[in-house]
Amino acid sequence: MTKPTKTYSTxxxxxxxSSRLAFILAATGSSVGLGNIWKFPYxxxxxxxxxxxxxxxxCIAIIGIPIMMAEVFIGRNGRHNxxxxxxxxxxxxxxxxxxxxxxxxxxxxxxxxxxFYSMIGGWAASYVxxxxxxxxxxxxxxxxxxxxxxxxxxxxTLLIWHSVFMVLVIFVVARGLKSGLxxxxxxxxxxLFGLLLIAAAxxxxxxxxxxxxxxxxxxxxxxxxxxxxxIALGHAFFTLSLGMAVMMAYGSYLGDDISIGRTAVTVSIMxxxxxxxxxxxxxxxxxxxxxxxxxxxxLIFETLPLxxxxxxxxxxxxxxxxxxxxxxxxTSAISLLEPVVEWLEDKLIFGRVGSTVVVGLGCWxxxxxxxxxxxxxxxxxxxxxxxxxxxxxxxxxxxxxxxNVMLPLSGLLTAVFVGWFVAKESLVKDLALKGPxxxxxxxxxxxxxxxxxxxxxxxxxMA
Length: 463
Ligand code: PHE
Fold this sequence. Notes:
This protein is mainly alpha-helical. 52% of the residues are buried. The protein has helices spanning 20-31, 34-46, 50-78, 82-92, 101-132, 141-153, 155-174, 176-204, 209-217, 226-239, 246-251, 260-288, 303-310, 314-346, 352-374, 394-421, 424-431, 435-462. It is built from 18 helices and no strands. The structure holds phenylalanine. Phenylalanine binds at residues 30-31, 33-36, 238-239, 241, 244, 246, 332, 335-336.
């Protein structure tokens, strides 16, 4: 049965972003993260460049943007934490409150992802120190690889940096919407764009910029595999922060007069531009130093430092680069904490600060599992009896399960719910898209998006 909506009057602690720009900066801050600067370049490298980039762009357009609009819509329409918002929107449309399972999965995923995202944010923070101290200068590839393995092998060092990173995140979120999140993104995002421009400008001087451009933009479909297509789709989800209730949480603070459609498109374009710029900043350096673009996850922590250690002013650029990475990870991490905190806060047991500390400590504690699975527990592979998970540490399993099960599940349910069960008039009004654009979105969210996500979902589980 549907619940009476009057018990859900907007809680007093709730505020709104002070402008459309504030929301755009926050949502872009969420979406621009390790995914853009660490993961995008290396998955592009591993999957052969141009053709992969093209598929990725298509996935953003056909799946990412429509789902982002749907998530922001639910948040703003419900004006509560993602789970309650989902329930309210369901009630208003006279469908079962059980649909909120989509948001429950999302909030849980956010919690789990933050636990290991913070560990990786900690790696980046520790590399700011290495870069600034000149630890890369004149080093061999082995010595630099050694630095990275030594970091992963030390539970204490990892724990320290994980804790530092988590404290930064808790600090911002505890201060609330305006003086916490909004202030942080208005300082960090312009800084991030500035640093990225400097990095790309520097890359342009290496003499290998053209090579990077053709690597990224000349599609060669003969090197694109089916796996590559699926990775592109999964990455589109991750990079836009979808399926984790984040855009619902941020959307719940969005003013009523703002067009969700235009705003979501702006955020997605900014995210894509940053990913491409990161590629343009990184690959020239890779090519200039005769390094391998397909180096994998170590591209940023092993390959690039090697280059920084050899280039003129490498200490300066290396430090700037890792500061950039920390900023990007930080604004993403606060957006992962927000939906969970918002949920606990709406329960009215603890205030803002209390809720943030409780959730933050929980995430921090769970993060210790990932830290230990890098070293002391690295031999412990719980699902080793299934061939597919052989050798997967607990960290590997958390990563796999969130990225390949929870996010697509939450995204799929949201797309079906909004596309098929929400009254069209309220979508027309809230998205505020022009006629044909609305029709395009409506068809995408009803047909193309769910089908594409379902296919990937099924393939990922079976493969
Ligand atoms: N979008 C972020 C990135 O690209 C990751 C992220 C996912 C952040 C979900 C918040 C929520 O790194």
